## 1
Amino acid sequence: MAKPPIPERLVEILKRPNPAVMGTVRPDGTPVTVATWYLWDDGRILLNLDAGRKRLEHIKANPRVSLTVLDGDSWYRHVSVQGTVTLEDDPDMTGIDRLARHYTGDQYPNRDRPRVSAWLEVESYHAWNAT
């Protein structure tokens, strides 16, 4: 796996609101993957979770996360990043609103449940067919 910095051609893929899958690890070691929104933010990646999600429990127990971003132009191209996340509460929903606007153009509609932002610091990456 390559070490950051990530080449600009791959950053251009990460900047777009592409389909993505986040991987975490359960306490028993079982991997879990779930589709998710993400936002590239100056070398880090913003993720956001409902405070009641199991993925959040997994991250609290083991903050190592993988994110695979499929290039929307060609699903045969992808960028996978791995790293460690830092969690911070999102009481005013600033984080989830940034993600929702990135993907939908509007603020996040569900304002009833607490949210947590997870900042992924990229430690390594791999790209497939992304030249």
## 2
Amino acid sequence: MRSRAAESRPIRRVELDAGAEVDRGAWWATIPAVRAVLDHGLNIPAGVTFLVGENGSGKSTLVEALAAAHGLNPEGGSRGAMHSTRVTESPLGQALRVIRTPGRRANAYFLRAETTHGLYTYLESLPGDNPDLNLHEQSHGEGFLELLERKFRGYGFYLMDEPEAPLSFTSTLGLLSRLGDLRADGAQVVVATHSPLLTALPGATILELGAHGIRRTEWADLDIVASWRGFLASPEAFLRHLGV
């Protein structure tokens, strides 16, 4: 029997739109994880899902595409966010069809660590009683966490790209706790990350991207967890190998 959370999650699946024309020879379409989505689609689980993998495995490409397909600004923000610096995203988002759960309105937001400066500037420019005027006055991490608290609320579909980038160890633990709270509120969250700390969230789904495409895995089996364990146990061995 399916759980109530699985039945009520905002987004059930993304797949290639039947009318989309895709250049399968384009750089982004040749990434194994992206090719897997184009060929087979991707079911989005309820709760929190982490996308993990090496640089170039397609984590950011996929999470940006999920944002664009859902109607969010791929540089961060909500559906109505009108800001852009330089368009670097692939056209994957325009080629995907989103299968939603009908009958309930869902909030949505995308936070992308590398483009938060532009997002802050846009938010500060909005007229009226603006709660976002102080974002540039805080550290990168403080502003990121405050924006997360303001915009990620209740039932909805939320996306993050490498949110650990501006955060200390303690702040990352705070983010992990916040992800647990969002899940308890019925939110569906997809996070692209390199963090072994975030991916330790109990009950989360971990999707590993790589040459194999996309596969579900467990935290203890992640290469990044094994690498960090080895480094922390014997940093001198790693450094000696690097000639440092």
